[in-house]
Design a protein that fits this description.
It is a single chain. This protein has about 130 residues and is α+β, with helices and mostly antiparallel strands. It has a domain of about 80 residues: RNA-binding S4 domain (Structural Genomics Hypothetical 15.5 Kd Protein In mrcA-pckA Intergenic Region, Chain A), CATH 3.10.290.10. The protein has five helices and seven strands, in the order αβααβββββαβα. Helix 2 packs across helix 3. The relative contact order is 0.13.
Length: about 130
């Protein structure tokens, strides 16, 4: 056996992976084609450099920046993964450098996406100086 053969990676352990495949394995997108579409639109950066080809390979240590929902995600790749597994397995593939912030809400403020209760309506009427009668 030569020295070059011993330096090769064991079968099944890749040193790089397509970015669209990695985003799919890490469960950022439901399908690989959605990940590829985002990359093709030029909305993904690898180590600060915009890319537009889903075939671009990434490896552990690379930093990805991309929009997801209403947040900009900044992710450092820790591992490549071999499949799209369950969420805990997917979360082990990356380190979140800028987790999305949860919006803080005043406890006295009614929820925007929920219909007000009768109690909420009574309080609002009192605040406007109107009576229920």
């Amino acid at each position: 056996m030569t020295g070059a053969a011993s330096e090769r990676q064991p079968p099944g352990e890749a040193t790089s992976l397509r970015i669209d495949k990695w985003l799919f394995h890490a469960r950022f997108f439901k399908t690989r084609s959605l990940a590829a579409k985002l990359v093709s639109e030029g909305k993904v950066r690898v180590d600060g450099t915009p890319i537009s080809k889903p075939s671009r390979t990434v490896s552990p240590g690379d930093t990805l920046t991309f929009p997801k929902d209403r947040h900009i995600r900044v992710i450092r790749i820790v591992a490549l993964g071999t499949r799209r597994g369950p969420a805990p397995e997917a979360q082990a593939l990356y380190e979140d450098l800028a987790p999305p912030e949860r919006p803080s809400r005043d406890p006295g403020e009614p929820k925007a996406d929920v219909r007000p209760t009768a109690r909420d309506r009574r309080i609002a009427l009192r605040m406007r100086g109107k009576s229920l009668e």
